Amino acid sequence: MAHAENETTISRSPEDIYAFLADGLNNPKWRSGIQHIALQSGNPGAVGAIYTQTLTGPGGRPIAGDYEITTAEPGKRLAFQVVAGPARPTGVYLLSVAPNGTTLRFILDLQPKGLMKLMGPMINRTMQTEAAQLANLKSVLESSLPNETA
Question: Which InterPro entries match (predicted)?
Answer without folding.
Answer: Polyketide_cyclase/dehydratase, START-like_dom_sf
